[in-house]
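Design request, tokens follow.
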């Protein structure tokens, strides 16, 4: 059975950078008070990239995919599977993955979306790994992409300061060398209310509440507990100790969650990739964006082991352990 190996990564952030001060000034025009110091102290976020109106998830995803394909040295003709993890698809259908396929000029392979919110990328990567191990695909594009700004209530200061837009991608290819070493996915649907955007369009009208709502403290507790156990379980599956993993690339929700997790797992700070300060929380895009930053700046090198972790609405969580 072949292994599935990450052979390239790419990221894309929309060019408009909004600092905490910019955001605070904008919210103040609507009598909503926030500050750089509140946001940094509670979340570690300094700025976020926001897509201009009209910019879509598939466009961000296609930029990131092209960068990953360039690094991998593959062309659109090589891609026989595209999976996009997103909670902000362009349309109800077709899937964002089909739109990306068309924008890349790829044809004929499978293309579909997965929806596991901020765990979406680890869900998509695990799915692509299973396709490759089963011999059903050879070269897969796995993308996390979001225009999360489109589902934020900009009058709710407790959520709108936390998120940003962006996309990250990897090319996963069948290989004789070990790549993905272990993976584990989880969900607990009974916790849906702590983090949801529980609206939809039916009969041409918005039904329910289309904006993201969150019980921040409940999310914090569940995120730390579930990710700690998931990290231990996935490493055990691979016959490793968490302490022996070279790099931790966790979902970038909040620097306090990341620090707490690192301490619980006894992973030193300099082995944890953090981008939440610059990107904010880009949901399904956060893990591949962080991975791409650390591959391109040379911290993560060929042969290193990388533990990627996602956690988010559903409630969902999961981990993928990979050798680069
Ligand atoms: N600016 C200023 N004040 C604010 C803001 C803001 N942006 N947002 C909330 N406040 C106020 C509240 O109104 C409240 O005021 P009050 O005491 O007068 O009532 C006060 O700050 C404290 O509010 P809390 O909600 O209790 O703040 P908390 O310390 O819990 O911090 C936070 C909120 C940062 C969301 C925290 O709960 C957290 O880190 N949660 C983790 C969840 C998370 O990061 N989610 C990201 C998305 S989920 C995911 O990706 C998995």
């Amino acid at each position: 059975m072949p292994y599935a190996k990450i052979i390239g990564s790419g990221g894309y952030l929309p060019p408009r950078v909004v600092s905490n001060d910019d955001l605070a000034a904008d919210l103040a025009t609507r009598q909503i008070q926030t500050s750089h110091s509140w946001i940094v102290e509670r979340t570690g976020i300094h700025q976020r990239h926001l897509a201009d109106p009209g910019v879509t998830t598939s466009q961000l995803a296609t930029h990131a995919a092209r960068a990953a394909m360039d690094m991998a040295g593959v062309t659109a003709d090589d891609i026989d599977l595209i999976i996009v993890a997103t909670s902000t698809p362009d349309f109800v259908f077709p899937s964002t993955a089909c739109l990306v396929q068309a924008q890349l000029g790829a044809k004929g392979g499978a293309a579909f979306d997965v929806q596991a919110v901020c765990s979406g990328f680890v869900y998509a990567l695990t799915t692509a790994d299973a396709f490759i191990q089963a011999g059903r695909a050879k070269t897969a594009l796995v993308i996390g992409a979001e225009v999360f700004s489109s589902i934020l209530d900009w009058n709710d200061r407790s959520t709108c300061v936390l998120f940003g837009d962006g996309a990250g991608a990897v090319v996963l290819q069948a290989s004789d060398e070990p790549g993905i070493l272990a993976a584990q996915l989880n969900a607990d649907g009974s916790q849906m209310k702590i983090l949801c955007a529980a609206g939809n369009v039916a009969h041409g009208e918005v039904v329910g509440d289309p904006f993201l709502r969150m019980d921040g403290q409940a999310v914090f507790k569940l995120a730390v507990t579930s990710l700690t156990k998931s990290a231990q379980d996935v490493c055990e599956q691979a016959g490793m100790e968490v302490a022996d993993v070279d790099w931790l690339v966790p979902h970038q929700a909040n620097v306090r969650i990341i620090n707490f997790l690192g301490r619980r797992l006894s992973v030193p700070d300099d082995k944890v990739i953090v981008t939440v300060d610059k990107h904010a929380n880009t949901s399904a895009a956060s893990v591949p964006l962080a991975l791409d930053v650390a591959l391109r700046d040379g911290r993560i090198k060929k042969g290193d082991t990388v533990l990627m972790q996602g956690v988010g609405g559903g409630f969902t969580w999961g981990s993928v352990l990979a050798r680069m």
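Comment from the thread starter after seeing the answer: thanks! The longest helix spans residues 216-237.
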